[in-house]
Specification:
Number of domains of chain A: 1
Structural class of chain B: mainly alpha
CATH class of chain A: Alpha Beta
Radius of gyration of chain B: 16 Å
Radius of gyration of chain A: 16 Å
Strand content of chain B: under 5%
InterPro entries (chain A): Thioredoxin-like_sf (IPR036249), Thioredoxin_domain (IPR013766)
Pfam families (chain A): Thioredoxin
Shape of chain B: globular
Strand order of the largest sheet of chain A: 2-1-3-4
Number of strands of chain B: 2
Shape of chain A: globular
CATH topology of chain A: Glutaredoxin
Domain Thioredoxin (chain A): 23-136
Largest sheet of chain A: 4 strands, mixed
Distance between the termini of chain A: 56 Å
Organism (chain A): Geodermatophilus africanus
Oligomer: heterodimer
Protein name (chain A): Thioredoxin
Chain lengths: 146, 148
């Protein structure tokens, strides 16, 4: 029994490490639905180069670290927008978007195209790469204010 | 605009819940090996204090503050109390079922519930993953919609 519990723990830890934070793409139809639901929540992708929508709950440890990481990235990349959604008060959207864990993040470009989604704390290098790929560094575009 | 996250309330040293998770894992592993319903019941009581009274009164948390924290460096990181406190509640449910199983003569139920509690505690101790917190939204969204 103890052996079984240890094996199950190892399996769960492995699965979590493999999946956590990985950015997954979406097909076009699914992406459009997702964007529509997010826009219904007040998300305006047209106002930033990259909009990251984060679903959080109060009982979520990594949500705070994720929020902090995104705010840190915002400091150097003003074209990055970050929006925090309290999952519990938007359960309809949670169901429609099939959000199962927190934090779940959705990445939208300026055209409102869904670039991908991820669950769990994002992987720092992957997140940075995504931001750098879509948000020009300040100076590249003068006089922009977000 | 969607509303902001709920305001952060009480915070704890992140190392406290981690230490408590290791200790919980050890207690549950011994309980599983010995099939001791009493030991699972003791762990259930420990969970109950943390979940109901708050982490500052949780026995392992007190142990951490008094015995362990002074030997470690200063606090480097704090986290909101709500997630680990919620995890104590989830642990409590499993421990109560486990203790009841063992003590009522259903050792299989006792062992399965205790084993699941051990998995959750060990995951938390080793990787920092809070299983109860992960399942929170899954449970919450399965319930009928409430107007936001």
């Amino acid at each position: 029994m103890l052996g079984g519990a240890l094996a199950l723990t190892a399996l769960a830890a492995w699965w979590q490490r493999r999946r956590d934070g990985a950015v997954r793409g979406a097909d076009d139809a699914r992406g459009r639905t997702t964007t529509a639901v997010l826009e219904g929540l007040g998300v305006r992708p047209g106002e930033a180069d990259l909009t990251v929508v984060q679903f959080s709950t109060a009982f979520c440890g990594p949500c705070r670290a994720t929020r902090a990481r995104l705010q840190q990235l915002q400091a150097t990349r003003p074209g990055l927008a970050h929006l925090d959604v309290d999952a519990e008060s938007h359960l309809d959207a949670v169901r429609e978007l099939d959000v199962r864990r927190t934090p779940t993040l959705f990445y939208l470009d300026r055209a409102g195209t869904l670039l991908g989604r991820s669950s769990g704390a994002p992987r720092p290098d992957e997140l940075t790469a995504l931001v750098e790929a879509h948000v020009p560094a300040p100076g590249a575009r003068e006089g922009r204010d977000v | 605009m969607p509303d902001a996250h709920p305001p952060t309330r009480r915070e704890v040293d992140v190392r406290g819940p981690r230490f408590a998770a290791w200790l919980t894992s050890a207690v549950l592993a011994v309980a599983l090996l010995t099939g001791s319903g009493v030991l699972v019941a003791v762990q259930a009581a420990v969970f109950a204090v943390g979940a109901l009274a708050g982490l500052r009164y949780a026995p392992y948390g007190v142990l951490f503050r008094v015995l362990v924290a002074p030997r470690l460096g200063p606090v480097r990181e704090r986290e909101p109390e709500a997630p680990p406190r919620f995890a104590q509640l989830v642990g409590l449910v499993f421990a109560v079922v486990g203790a009841a199983g063992y003590l009522a003569g259903a050792p299989l139920i006792g062992a399965v519930a205790t084993g699941l509690a051990l998995v959750a505690a060990l995951l938390n101790a080793a990787t920092g993953l809070c299983l109860g917190c992960e399942l929170y939204l899954t449970v919450r969204r399965a319930r009928p919609a409430r107007t936001a």
